[in-house]
């Protein structure tokens, strides 16, 4: 059974994380449930809870989003059900209907898409939905939440009579209004409403001439408000009918309450289901906000955090638009205790808190901001001793409190425990406190516990180096500026850089030397050796980075050479094919020329046709028969090559056009007089030839294999 106490959760700032999660819930009860989240006591319940959150995150932005789960709380209604003869109001039934309908929609959705929402469907299957509750409420209430006319036979009769009486009131009042208005007994406003009754606005001087009941007068007394006698009888009946309607509605609501009362536990389970869905939704939204993922869950004891972020620090830095440095750290049976050392403000405490907080979050069903390749396991206990814990109420000093905590650790620590201790051994005489801390660490080690501690004590660094299943670690610092790099390095202890930091902060060198003399020579040498090792490691790291960069460049150059070689090879093959094709055409041309010469000499048409046919058949026999499918493939291949070539040509033309525009902007080149024998080439070309002669504005350029006639303005001299 997992037991993680509230003090540990407070040390790791878990309640603050829950406050951030609760902000994403859409119901008050959901927010309260999120704030009440605690690590699961049964480890088998953790993974299904994480899978449900993971599935909910996948639904955001999908084509079939999960239906809205918002609802109004029915806590008051559930309490009233417990009281005998209590009656729910119409608004209470509307809230109950909202809960039942929302539950029905969610259950139906998860059933429909059960192949996508496996964990959510498994969880929803435990809800026993009964349609009867919704059906009986729908029979009584309309879509606006009002009691229907046909909710009972008596109510239907009363409401039909109400409609009739209201019509008679309007009719009789209209007649009286017309009569007294014609007699000029009424004021300009003619009528008004008093005590929810329609009245005539009679001039005060004519009040005795109007038959009816006086219901009031204006402030000035100039107008008397009178209900006509014709209307009074009907309004009295209306009042009686309204009373009867109200009593009949109460009777209906009482019957409905008694009808639903037996299902109060079922309604409570619906509300609990919707609250849980809201907590899952809030956790999923928070996971998206901090870019959290579901890591691998190990059955054994192995903890490997890759690019892990502290969620509270991540959120704070986002607001400040500052970078958050991720940490990678691992604990496994062969290296289950890590002792982190080094200067303050390097990130030791935040690394320790990150591990603890993410572990608690995961065991509470929250996704964590790590790389998905990270690996987690579950611990029965997470023990923490973080920060200055002076207890004023119990008159305990920091050290007394820490000793009390260590006593608790010794009672609870075992192989299923993760302990996290910040500044281990501080608060007392360095040598005596360090010795006691060393003994505690040995006990934790013997009990096969997993843990991370931060310390400045040299004896703890030495102990971690001696114990086979423990390891030293330090937070990297720039050896020159002593600025933190916020990266954890496993395998070596870290120097506190006490004197170096003091010197950097302006403490006189003479005082630093005086301080060094007061410390044992061995301690200074030990700390200095560690500091030198860290500096050397920083140099090696930089050299390694340089070598990796050089290797990457060499690899890229090698790839480029391979590409160039492939292109050259392709061109050579193309030229070879072209040469072979030309040789074949020349050979055919010679044969054809021989046949033509024979025909010229002997004029034998039949003999010529026979030889031509024989030549054609011979050439066709050399051709390979290509299947239609292969022809289609080759045709598509040629078309694709043609498109690629056209695209490349278009790019080249575009570049040349840019060059021409650029060249046009440059000052014109000086004119060079060309003469016979000059080596020239076309301005846009590469082939070089020699001028044989000129004719008007054109030059005959000899390219060796052929002579071309080119306009002089298109030529440039080659030096």
Could you characterize the architecture of this molecule?
The protein is an alpha/beta fold and 719 residues long. It contains 21 helices and 19 strands. It has a six-stranded mixed β-sheet, with helices on both faces. The chain has a five-stranded antiparallel β-sheet with strand order 18-17-16-15-19, with no helix packed on it. The longest helix has 82 residues. It starts with 5 loop residues before the first helix and ends with a strand. About 1% of the residues have low confidence.
Tags for this entry?
single chain, 719 residues, alpha/beta, six-stranded mixed beta sheet, five-stranded antiparallel beta sheet, 21 helices, 19 strands, 55% helix, flat
How much of the sequence is in beta strands?
5-15%
Number of strands: 19
Mean pLDDT, as a whole number? 83
Q: Strand count, sense and closure of the main sheet?
A: 6 strands, mixed
Helix content: 40-55%
Uncertain segments? 390-395
* Quaternary structure type: single chain
Number of helices: 21
- Shape annotation: flat
Strand order of the largest sheet: 10-11-12-8-13-14
CA gyration radius, whole angstroms: 47 Å
Distance between the amino and carboxyl termini: 91 Å
SS-based class: alpha/beta
Describe the secondary-structure layout.
Elements: H1 6-11, H2 14-22, H3 28-35, H4 46-59, H5 75-81, H6 90-112, H7 118-124, H8 132-140, H9 153-182, E1 186-194, E2 197-203, E3 212-217, E4 223-228, H10 229-260, H11 264-289, E5 296-297, E6 303-308, H12 311-320, E7 327-331, E8 337-341, H13 348-363, E9 375-376, E10 381-385, H14 398-412, E11 417-421, H15 430-446, E12 450-454, H16 458-466, E13 470-477, E14 484-490, H17 498-504, H18 509-518, H19 521-602, H20 605-622, H21 628-665, E15 679-682, E16 688-695, E17 698-702, E18 707-711, E19 715-717
Helix pairs in contact: 2-3, 3-11, 4-7, 4-11, 6-7, 6-8, 6-11, 8-10, 9-10, 19-20
């Amino acid at each position: 059974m997992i037991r993680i106490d509230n003090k540990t959760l407070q040390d790791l700032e878990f309640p603050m994380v829950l406050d951030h999660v609760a902000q994403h819930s859409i119901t008050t009860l959901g927010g309260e449930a999120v704030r009440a989240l605690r690590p699961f006591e049964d480890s088998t319940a953790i993974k299904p809870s994480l899978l449900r959150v993971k599935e909910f995150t996948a639904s955001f932005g999908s084509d079939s989003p999960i239906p809205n789960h918002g609802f109004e709380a029915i806590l008051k209604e559930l309490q009233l059900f417990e009281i005998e003869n209590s009656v729910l109001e119409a608004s209470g039934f509307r809230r109950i209907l909202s809960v039942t309908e929302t539950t029905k929609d969610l259950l139906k959705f998860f059933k429909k898409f059960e192949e996508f929402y496996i964990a959510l469907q498994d969880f929803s299957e435990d809800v026993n939905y009964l349609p009867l509750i919704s059906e009986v409420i729908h029979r009584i209430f309309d879509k606006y939440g009002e009691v229907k006319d046909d909710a009972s036979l008596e109510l239907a009769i009363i409401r039909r009579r109400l409609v009739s009486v209201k019509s008679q009131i309007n009719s009789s009042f209209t007649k009286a209004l017309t009569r007294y208005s014609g007699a000029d007994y009424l004021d300009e406003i003619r009528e008004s409403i008093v005590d929810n009754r329609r009245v005539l606005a009679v001039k005060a001087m004519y009040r005795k001439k109007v038959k009816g009941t006086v219901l009031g007068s204006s402030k000035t007394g100039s107008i008397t408000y009178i209900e006509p006698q014709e209307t009074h009888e009907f309004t009295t009946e209306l009042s009686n009918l309204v009373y009867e309607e109200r009593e009949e509605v109460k009777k209906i609501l009482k019957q409905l309450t008694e009808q639903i009362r037996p299902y109060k536990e079922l309604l409570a389970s619906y509300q609990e289901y919707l609250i849980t869905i809201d907590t899952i939704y809030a956790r999923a939204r928070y996971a998206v906000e901090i870019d959290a993922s579901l890591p691998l869950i190990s059955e054994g004891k192995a903890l490997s955090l890759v690019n892990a972020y502290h969620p509270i620090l991540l959120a704070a830095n986002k607001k400040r638009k500052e970078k958050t440095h991720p940490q990678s750290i691992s604990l496994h049976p062969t290296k289950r205790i890590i002792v982190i050392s080094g200067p303050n403000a390097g990130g030791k405490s935040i690394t320790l808190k990150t591990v603890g907080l993410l572990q608690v979050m995961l065991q509470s069903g929250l996704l964590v901001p790590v790389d998905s390749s990270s690996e987690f396991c579950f611990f029965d206990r997470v023990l923490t001793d973080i920060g200055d814990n002076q207890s004023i109420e119990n008159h305990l000093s920091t050290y007394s409190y820490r000793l009390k905590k260590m006593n608790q650790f010794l009672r609870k620590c075992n192989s299923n425990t993760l302990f996290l201790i910040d500044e281990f051994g501080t608060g007392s005489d360095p040598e005596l406190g360090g010795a006691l801390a060393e003994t505690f660490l040995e006990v934790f080690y013997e009990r096969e516990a997993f843990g991370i501690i931060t310390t400045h004590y040299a004896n703890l660094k030495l102990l971690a180096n001696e114990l086979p299943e423990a390891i030293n670690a330090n937070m990297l610092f720039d050896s020159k500026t002593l600025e933190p790099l916020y990266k954890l390095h496993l395998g070596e202890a870290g120097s506190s850089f006490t004197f170096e930091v003091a010197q950097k902060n302006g403490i006189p060198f003479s005082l630093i030397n005086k301080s060094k003399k007061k410390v044992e020579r061995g301690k200074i040498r030990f700390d200095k050796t560690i500091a030198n090792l860290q500096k050397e490691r920083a140099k090696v790291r930089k050299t390694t980075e340089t070598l990796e960069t050089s290797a990457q460049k060499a690899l890229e150059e090698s790839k480029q050479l391979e590409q160039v070689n492939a292109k050259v090879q392709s061109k050579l093959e193309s030229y070879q094919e072209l040469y072979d094709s030309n040789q074949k055409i020349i050979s055919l041309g010679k044969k054809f020329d021989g046949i033509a010469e024979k025909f010229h000499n002997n004029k034998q048409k039949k003999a010529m046709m026979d030889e031509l046919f024989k030549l054609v058949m011979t050439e066709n026999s050399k051709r390979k028969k290509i299947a239609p499918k292969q022809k289609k493939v080759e045709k598509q291949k040629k078309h694709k090559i043609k498109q690629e070539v056209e695209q490349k040509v278009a790019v080249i033309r575009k570049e040349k056009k840019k060059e021409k525009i650029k060249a046009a902007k440059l000052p014109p080149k000086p004119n060079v007089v060309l003469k016979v024998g000059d080596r020239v080439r076309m301005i846009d070309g590469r082939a070089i030839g020699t001028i044989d002669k000129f004719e008007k504005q054109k030059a005959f350029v000899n390219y060796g294999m052929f002579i071309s006639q080119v306009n002089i303005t298109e030529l440039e001299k080659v030096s």
